[in-house]
């Protein structure tokens, strides 16, 4: 496993075969993504703005619906290391493939984190445990 640590507030582990993509998108948010060799990806974005969780989720759905108008949305609550993550699973079609995107919100004293993952459904069974392990490593710090 590789470890990403920005020596500030983000630290997580991810598989050796995955590629790290770090982008500083603005003063308000930092985005770090890891991409699997198969094309699925996991991303965490730190957002210091005071946006309500519901609004963050609505923005995610709106952005996905621009690309996938027939998006199906399912509200979910996950628990990782005694931490509640609210979010959505979004199911979509692209050409003859189906995909799933998940967004979760993790609130800490240092800020709000939006965790996003996406994969083709054919790969999701293999990648979902990896996405969950990366998220768990992030929350445990």
Features:
141 residues; 2 helices; Protein Transport Mog1p, Chain A; 9 strands; alpha+beta
3D architecture notes:
- With 141 residues, the protein is α+β, with helices and mostly antiparallel strands.
- The chain has a single domain (2-11, 19-140), classed as Protein Transport Mog1p, Chain A (3-Layer(aba) Sandwich), CATH 3.40.1000.10.
- Helix content is 25%, strand content 50%.
- It has helices spanning 53-67, 121-140; strands at 2-5, 11-14, 19-23, 29-35, 41-47, 72-80, 83-94, 97-108, 111-120.
- The longest helix has 20 residues, at 121-140.
- It comes from marine sediment metagenome.
- This is DUF3805 domain-containing protein.
| SSE series | EEEEEHEEEEH
Q: What does the average pLDDT come to?
A: 88
Q: What is the tally of beta strands?
A: 9
Q: Helical element count? A: 2
Query: Per the principal axes of the C-alpha atoms, what is the gross shape?
Result: globular
**Low-confidence blocks of residues:** none
Biggest sheet: strands side by side, in what order?
3-4-5-9-8-7-6
| CATH superfamily placement | Mog1/PsbP, alpha/beta/alpha sandwich
Fraction of residues in β-strands: over 45%
Give the termini separation: 15 Å
Oligomer: single chain
Instruction: Kindly name the structural category.
Output: alpha+beta
Tell me the helix content.
Answer: 10-25%
Q: Architecture, CATH level 2?
A: 3-Layer(aba) Sandwich
What radius of gyration results from the CA coordinates?
15 Å
């Amino acid at each position: 496993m590789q470890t990403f640590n920005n020596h500030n507030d983000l630290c997580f582990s991810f598989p050796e075969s995955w590629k790290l993509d770090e982008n500083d998108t603005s003063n308000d948010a930092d985005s770090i993504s890891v991409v699997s060799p198969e094309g699925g990806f996991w991303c965490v974005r730190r957002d210091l703005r005071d946006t309500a969780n519901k609004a963050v989720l609505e923005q995610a759905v709106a952005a996905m619906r621009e690309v996938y108008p027939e998006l199906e949305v399912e509200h979910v609550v996950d628990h990782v290391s005694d931490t509640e993550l609210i979010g959505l699973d979004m199911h979509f079609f692209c050409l003859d493939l189906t995909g799933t995107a998940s967004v979760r919100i993790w609130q800490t004293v240092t800020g709000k984190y939006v965790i996003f993952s996406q994969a083709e459904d054919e790969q999701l069974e293999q990648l979902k445990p990896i996405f969950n392990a990366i998220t768990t490593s992030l929350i445990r710090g």
